[in-house]
Amino acid sequence: MEICAQTKKHVQVQKPIATNVETARAMIETARKGGIVLGVVSQHRFDDSSQFLSKAIAQGRLGKLLECDCYVKWHRSAAYYSRPIKGSWETEGGGALINQAIHQLDVLRWLAGPFKSCSDTGSWARCIKSSPRMW
Fold first, then answer.
1. Alpha-carbon span 88 to 78, nearest angstrom
2. List of residues 6+ apart from 18 with CB closer than 8 A
3. Over the stretch 57-76, which tens digit does the pLDDT of each residue have?
4. Does an H or E element contain 110, and which?
5. How far apart are CA 73 and CA 34, in angstroms?
6. Cα(105)–Cα(113) distance, rounded to whole angstroms?
C-alpha cells in the first residue's frame, strides 16, 4: 500500500478491506496522504465456483456463449429502495442494477468476455456477445 501511495498508483482490494480496524484505518490514511484512490469491492472472480466455471467455459465444455443474462438474486421491496440512502439517484446513482447487479455484470463480463450490447430491465440484465471469448 505504501509503495502504491508513493508511486501514485490507485489500489482496489476485495471485501473486507482488512482483518482488523487498525489495518483498515492505516490503509485509508496511507491512501489519503498519498493522494490515491482506495477502492473496496465485492469481487467474486476468485471464488471456487467462479474459477471452476471460468475453466469450463475456456475449455468449451459449455459450448459457445452467444447470450448471457444475470439478475440480482435477492429481492428487496420498493420501500427498501425508496429510503433516501438506499438505491436513490441522489445518494447512490441508481437502483438495483447499479447497487447490486453491477457485481453480477462484472463477473459475467469476466467470464464471457466483451459484449455487443447490454440491456437493463431494472432487476436483471441481458448481454449479447460481440465476439468469441478472447482468452
1. 11
2. 24, 27
3. 889 898 888 777 776 656 66
4. helix 102-112
5. 38
6. 11
Residue 92 belongs to what H/E stretch? Answer: none
End-to-end CA distance of the chain: 30
Q: All 3 cell numbers of residue 85?
A: 440512502
Peptide bond connecting 132 to the previous residue in cis, omega within 30 degrees of 0? no
Identify whether the C-beta of residue 69 lies closer than 8 Å to the C-beta of residue 63: no
Kindly report the average pLDDT of the chain as a whole number. Answer: 76
**pTM, rounded to two decimals:** 0.49
The position carrying cell 446513482 is 93
Q: Identify residue 78 by its one-letter amino acid code.
A: A
| 8's grid cell | 501514485
Written as nine digits, the cell of 27 is: 490503509
Distant-in-sequence, close-in-space partners of 100: CB < 8 Å, separation ≥ 6:
72, 74
CA distance 87 to 73: 16
For residue range 48-59, list pLDDT tens digits in order. 888 999 899 889
